[in-house]
Design goal:
Helix content: 40-55%
Radius of gyration: 27 Å
Number of strands: 10
Shape: elongated
Structural class: alpha+beta
Oligomer: single chain
Strand order of the largest sheet: 7-8-6-5-2-10
Order of helices and strands: HHHEHEEEHEEHEEEE
């Protein structure tokens, strides 16, 4: 009888514990929903609020607190965007003047070699900074509010990036003409720094192709950019921090940092997926898969299509 009593008490305690866990889980479920919703809004739509009115219980009080935090985050981001835009506008005019004067002087035929080299460096630096400022302005205008109707062509984006990236190594391209769910300019500003980085450090070749099995095929395009250079040493995440440059690199170390920021503002990302052998970046861009035009990209520097004006070649593309 004593043993039976102990068993019954154990069963009662087990049932009570299970009931208590169930009650606590049900009681905390609204809190988890509020937290998850607030986290989603903070990333994708800072204009949303719970707006449950004056606090009448713990949940409405929590919702009010989260609304206040979202207000502060939204205000801080708007202030940052205004400051970024104002600084970029202030810097654009003097940089244009510097680049224009340097290019004008370079047109002279009797410049000493050392002077010409110095002016070329000034012009190149001004051009890089002008491109960075253009990215900052575009980001300030669109961050957190990329138009849903904005659509661009992956082929057009790759075309422009390659045309603006001088390369002295082999560049192989293998992509399809998919439609991207973001403005053309932002797609270019996301991809261009990644390709320029690969070209700068490649030993002999750079490859750009679509991922064989996209992680999220219904909503994104994963573009792989890899090079056979020496790889990335140290903390891989550090390369996405503003001001970080690699040995032998030029510039202010803003390229990859801005590329990731632009991508994330549009619902995409830039990820270092392999640091060495080869170095591989994944550029994830939002897509419009229902309108994909499934034909191979056709690029070649030695011939232009009279119909489309695109650089063409059968099958895989090679850029020497």
């Amino acid at each position: 009888a004593g043993t039976s009593g102990v068993v019954i008490i154990d069963d009662i305690l087990t049932a009570a514990a299970a009931l208590g866990a169930w009650v606590i889980t049900r009681a905390l479920q609204p809190v988890a929903i509020l937290a998850s919703t607030a986290a989603d809004w903070s990333e994708h739509d800072l204009s949303r609020r719970f707006a449950l009115g004056p606090p009448t219980n713990e949940l409405t009080a929590l919702a009010g607190t989260l609304d206040t935090l979202l207000d502060k985050v939204s205000s801080a981001i708007r202030s940052e965007q205004r400051l970024t835009s104002e600084l970029a506008h202030e810097l654009r005019t003097p940089l244009t003047t510097i680049q224009g004067n340097a290019d004008l002087v370079l047109m002279g035929a009797d410049l000493p070699a050392a002077t010409r080299e110095g002016l070329n460096e000034i012009s190149a630096a001004a051009h890089r900074m002008t491109s960075t400022i253009a990215t900052l302005l575009e980001l300030a205008r669109t961050e957190g509010g990329v138009a849903e109707s904005a659509v661009s062509s992956l082929v057009d984006v790759v075309d422009e990036v390659l045309a603006s990236t001088p390369a002295d190594v082999l560049v192989e391209i293998d992509v399809r003409d998919l439609r991207l769910g973001l403005p053309h300019a932002l797609a270019v500003r996301t991809l261009a720094p990644v390709v320029a980085n690969a070209v700068r450090f490649a030993s002999s070749a750079v490859r750009i192709n679509l991922a064989a099995s996209p992680v999220r095929p219904a909503s994104s395009v994963d573009l792989i950019v890899e090079d056979d250079g020496p790889g990335i040493q140290g903390d891989p995440d550090a390369i996405f921090e503003a001001g970080t440059t690699c040995g032998g690199g030029s510039g202010a170390g803003l390229g990859l940092a801005l590329a990731r920021r632009v991508a994330r503002s549009c619902g995409g990302d830039v990820i270092l997926t392999q640091a060495v052998g080869p170095t591989r970046f994944t550029v994830r861009l939002p897509s419009v898969w229902g309108n994909a035009r499934n034909r191979p990209v056709v690029h070649h520097r030695t011939g232009r299509s009279q119909q489309s004006g695109r650089l063409q070649a059968p099958g895989r593309t090679l850029f020497p």
